[in-house]
Amino acid sequence: MVMRLLVFIGMAGLLAVNAVAAPSCEKLIASGSGDYPPYLWRDPANARKLIGTDADLLKQIGEQIGVKIELVDAGSAAQAEEDVRSGRADLLLTSRLNLAQLEQMDFIHPAMQRTTVQVWMQKARPFAYAGWDDLLGRAGESPINTPLSPEFDSFARQNLSLRRSKDLAKEFQKLLLGRIDYVLAERYPGQLVAAQLGITEQLDARGPAVSSAGLYLALSHNSACNDVVLRGQLAKKMKELVDAGLPQALLKRNLQRWQEQSLPAELSQND
Fold first, then answer.
1. Which long-range contacts (CB under 8 A, 24 or more apart) does 47-50 make?
2. CATH for 2-114+214-270, among 3.40.30.10, 3.40.190.10, 1.10.287.370, 3.30.160.40?
3. Same fold across 2-114+214-270 and 115-212
4. What is residue 270's predicted lDDT score, i.e. its pLDDT?
5. Confidence grade of residue 100 (pLDDT, cut at 50, 70, 90)
6. Does position 268 have pLDDT exceeding 60, yes or no?
7. Each residue's pLDDT tens digit, 162-208
8. Residue 116: strand, helix, or coil
9. What does the DSSP 8-state code read for residue 149?
10. What is the pTM of this model?
11. Residue 6 has pLDDT above 80, yes or no
12. What are the residue ranges spanned by the domains of the chain?
């Protein structure tokens, strides 16, 4: 059902954009939260400005469809979602697809990025991991905002000793102290937290991925600009840029950008 809706948004939009070329709105407001590097974070030189992989991709889309897109920092992911649901903002940036939001937003297909959740363990205390069953009998933690699939979440509730917390940095520190056996965290956000703590060489992120999720651009049902033409323009341009490999190129550039901004010079150069 979800994929059928996404395909409909993409295909119907492509037909419309071929029929009508003019933008339906000259300006859109996009809302996001600056606590998700390398996808979105606050610019150290201007705390009111959001930068990152998805900010760069959104800018490219706006420029190429001829619409000015202003990206604002909502302060938190929950507030960004509320801004878009209410229509105060037109677009939600870096959103994970869920059924409840489909009643309030149109998710533009394909996803801007895909994020994977991996099993992080201490290199000094490794264990064999080839699938979910290898986590049985071990103590683990995972940040509350880590996108675990419904299937894995159900498996974890029934079978695992997995605690959810708010602070990935503290979870990594507990892992190094031997108080837990593993941490479930996203690949790239995990890499950046480990680098910031100076513990990259002490940790190992193992696959296969526990789960994965798409990070989408979503358009509010309450946006005055939401029509078939705009949805088509966004879907067409998103597919072109994804097919051209731009999101991955921007991801690589922003991983380096974050390290240059956030790490001491000697650590950034070593990476």
1. 48/73, 49/73
2. 3.40.190.10
3. yes
4. 52
5. confident
6. no
7. 999 999 999 999 999 999 999 999 999 999 999 999 999 999 999 99
8. strand
9. -
10. 0.86
11. no
12. 2-114+214-270, 115-212
The CA–CA distances, whole Å, from 37 to 95, 150, 254 equal: 14, 24, 9
pLDDT at residue number 263: 76
245-270 exposure pattern, b = at least 16 Cβ within 10 A, e = fewer: ebbeebbeebbebbbeeebeeeeeee
Specify the long-range contacts of residues 8-13, CB closer than 8 Å, at least 24 apart: 9/106, 9/107, 9/108, 9/109, 9/231, 9/235, 10/108, 10/109, 10/110, 10/235, 10/239, 12/228, 12/231, 12/232, 13/228, 13/231, 13/232, 13/233, 13/234, 13/235, 13/236
Alpha-carbon distance of 12 to 5, in angstroms, equals 10
Per-residue model confidence (pLDDT) at position 97: 87
Superfamily of domain 115-212: Periplasmic binding protein-like II (3.40.190.10)
Structure confidence by residue, pLDDT tens digits, 206-233: 999 999 999 999 999 999 999 999 999 9
Write out the two tokens for 155: 């498996």
